[in-house]
Amino acid sequence: MTKKLESQGYVTVGHNTLYNGECVVVGTADSPVSIGSYCAIGRNLTIMPVNHDTRFAAIQGTVYREMFGEGHPGESGLPSRSRSKGGITIGNDVWIADNVTILSGVEIGDGACIGAGSIVTKSIPAYHVAAGSPCRTIRDRFPVEVAILMQEIQWWNWSEEKIRRNKRFFLLDLSSCSTADIKASLVD
Questions:
Q1: pTM of the model
Q2: Integer angstrom CA distances of residue 61 from 29, 65, 100
């Protein structure tokens, strides 16, 4: 069953972003998570902007809390670079298939598609199809000139009324039409 993903805490989610199943999305003050509008997210997505700090004798904090009455040294103060490479940004109109993990410091561009089972450790450009462990670009989603035009159009910022008026645009096969065809299909 598809549900809307909602903003909470250090996680912001755009308009009409949907997910199909269990998601673990964690954001922190130093490593926030931003997910754009009209994204389609499969089952078992994990977004983790923070890792365990491996520089100390014990990986997890239980030893430090229970034995010493204090937190893990890697958790005190600001997170170290070994714990996080920064927040995670997922653009608009992004498809993330089932069983995907996205790690800290990653940006996934508008219109990108991430294949099932991928572990995303590096940024993926807009309108690229990527998959694997580690995730890497496989191909462009559209011809380059079409991808550039799509980033200029930014349909995800349109009102629902304008989206309805542009049904012809949404029915175009963008992999095989010209930018002139796309422009001709648009209605203000």
A1: 0.88
A2: 20, 6, 26
Q: Catalytic pick from 15, 52, 72, 128?
A: 52
Least trusted range by pLDDT, from 46-50, 65-69, 79-83, 109-113: 79-83
Cα separation, 98 vs 84, in Å, equals 24
For tokens 């308009």, name the residue.
Answer: 15
Q: How many helices (H) and strands (E) in the chain?
A: 5, 15
CA–CA separation, 34 and 175 (whole Å): 28
Each residue's pLDDT tens digit, 141-166: 999 999 999 999 999 999 999 999 99
Nearest to 82 by CA among 62, 105, 102, 64: 105
User: How far apart are the C-alpha atoms of 43 and 100, rounded to whole Å?
Assistant: 8
Domains in the chain (CATH in brackets) are: 3-49+84-140 (2.160.10.10), 144-185 (no CATH)
pLDDT, mean over the chain: 91
Q: Measure the CA–CA gap between 37 and 22, rounded to whole angstroms.
A: 19
100-111 pLDDT, tens digit each: 999 999 999 999
**Strand-pair partners of 25:** 47
| 15 noted as active-site residue | no
